[in-house]
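User: Here's a structure from my thesis project, written as structure tokens. My advisor, Dr. K., wants to see whether a designed sequence matches the one we expressed. Can you design one independently, without my sequence as a hint?
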């Protein structure tokens, strides 16, 4: 699927936009996004909230898994937090690990500006028979 079309489609992810996630790249089976940590992203002890980190990872998971033009919906995810982050920019990169006609698995690495591993996210999607294009907003 065309990278521009994919980025346009996922610009409609209102929750990711609300959180402040910015999609940087999209390619078949891959995606990269960033999140600049702001006060609103901090939990009660002053570190980036797990939900903010999860939201960053979840967007690249969605983009990478839908990049083949087939609707893909998450059926299972797990996340492991390795290190806390208090400020700066986090980057998430998704990589396709395996894919077949029904299932695909992705590994997402979340790092800080110094390339420290903040979290690992693994997700599996169910690949429906529907074309992603059928869900594109119509213009006009």
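Assistant: Designed independently from the structure alone:
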């Amino acid at each position: 699927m065309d990278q521009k079309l994919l980025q346009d489609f996922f610009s409609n992810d209102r929750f990711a936009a609300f959180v402040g996630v910015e999609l940087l790249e999209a390619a078949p089976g891959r995606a990269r996004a960033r999140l600049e940590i702001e006060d609103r992203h901090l939990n009660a002890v002053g570190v980036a909230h797990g939900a903010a980190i999860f939201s960053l990872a979840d967007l690249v998971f969605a983009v990478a898994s839908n990049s083949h033009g087939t609707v893909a919906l998450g059926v299972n995810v797990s996340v492991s937090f390795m290190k806390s982050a208090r400020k700066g920019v986090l980057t998430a990169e998704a990589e396709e690990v395996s894919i077949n006609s029904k299932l695909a698995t992705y590994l997402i690495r979340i790092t800080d500006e110094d390339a420290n591993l903040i979290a690992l996210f693994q997700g599996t999607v169910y690949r429906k028979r529907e074309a992603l294009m059928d869900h594109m907003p119509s213009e006009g």
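When you compare it with your expressed construct, this may help: The chain has one domain: 3-135.
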